[in-house]
Amino acid sequence: MGFLIRMTITAIGLWTASELISGISIRDTATLLWAALVLGIVNAVVRPIAIVLTLPITLLSLGLFLWVINAAMIGLVGWFLEGFQVASFGAALLAAIVVGLTGWIGNAFIGERGNYEIVIARRG
Predict the structure, then answer these.
(1) Burial letters for 39-76: b for 16+ Cβ neighbours within 10 Å, e otherwise?
(2) pLDDT (tens digit per residue) in 14-25
């Protein structure tokens, strides 16, 4: 269940990026879902390898190079899927911000096991 929720959050982020950024286009809903699935797989397999290989650059840039790695992962998904177009690396950089923010906001409502969480704060 948690995987489907996270994939849905990623799909929402990709859709939002395609609406806000002119260099990102998604042909249809099926392509959007495939792009979210492939991005999840790429982030699970390729991204850790890229992070380890670029660790010195990441440390020198105080972590900002991770933004470039995230953009490269989006570009890689665009290269794999025919209906998911990434026009330029600049568009991929902006899409990485949108997808990252969407994921950050969405994951704030999800627990470690992928369940919804409701946090209630009470004044003492």
Answers:
(1) bbebbeeebeebeeebeeebeeeeeebbebbbbbbbbb
(2) 999 999 999 999
Domain of residue 60: give its range.
2-107
Q: Is 86 helix (H, G, I), strand (E, B) or coil?
A: strand
Q: Is 115 domain-assigned?
A: no
**Residues 73/51, Cβ–Cβ less than 8 Å:** no
Instruction: Name residue 82's amino acid.
Output: E
- What is the C-alpha separation between 87 and 91, in angstroms, rounded? 7
In a domain, 101, yes or no: yes
41/77 Cα distance (integer angstroms): 10
User: Looking at this protein, which amino acid is placed at residue 7?
Assistant: M
State pTM to two decimals.
0.84
In a domain, 57, yes or no: yes
Total domain count, the chain: 1
Residue 113 falls inside a structural domain: no
Single-letter amino acid code for the residue at 79: W
